[in-house]
Write a structure and sequence with these properties.
141 residues; minor pseudopilin epsh fold; 8 strands; 1 helix
């Protein structure tokens, strides 16, 4: 009887952990889309008379190191960082190509297609991809 209860408890814990991690991944995806739309909106309005963008960084060897930064200016390296946010420790963030997406002042368009993949450390099949198209369209799956 105790063995059955232990197996059921373990199964419930594993299921709960999986659901919890999936929700963390969904939340990280939603926050990433929100910061991209925020940068785009600020660029369209011409805030600070500048382009706006988001820089993605991280170290694949350190769980706590994945982050994104909202910035304005001609580029991340010569711009001004406004805010920094870190992904949950359960999440890996990997850009495909550039680490920066920049939205142009007044138009909100980007100069190339930009993609970032978010996935769980514990389950590479749990993956979300966010894509910014040159026309400014932001999509996520």
């Amino acid at each position: 009887m105790i063995g059955i209860i232990a197996v059921l408890a373990l199964g419930g814990t594993v299921t709960y952990r999986g659901v919890f991690l999936e929700r963390q991944l969904d939340g990280a995806t939603q926050k990433t889309v929100a910061v991209l739309k925020n940068a785009q909106s600020r660029a369209i309005s011409g805030e600070n008379n500048s382009n706006w963008g988001v820089h993605f960084g991280g170290d694949p060897m350190i769980h706590l190191a994945y982050y994104y930064q909202l910035f304005y200016g001609p580029s991340y390296t010569s711009g001004t960082v406004v805010s920094t946010a870190y992904y949950p420790t359960s999440t890996i963030a990997a850009t495909i190509g550039s680490q920066d997406v920049i939205f142009y002042k007044n138009s909100g368009q980007a100069d190339f297609t930009f993609s970032i993949a978010l996935q769980l450390w514990s389950d590479a099949s749990s993956r979300k991809t966010i894509t910014v198209h040159p026309n400014g369209l932001i999509e996520s799956n």
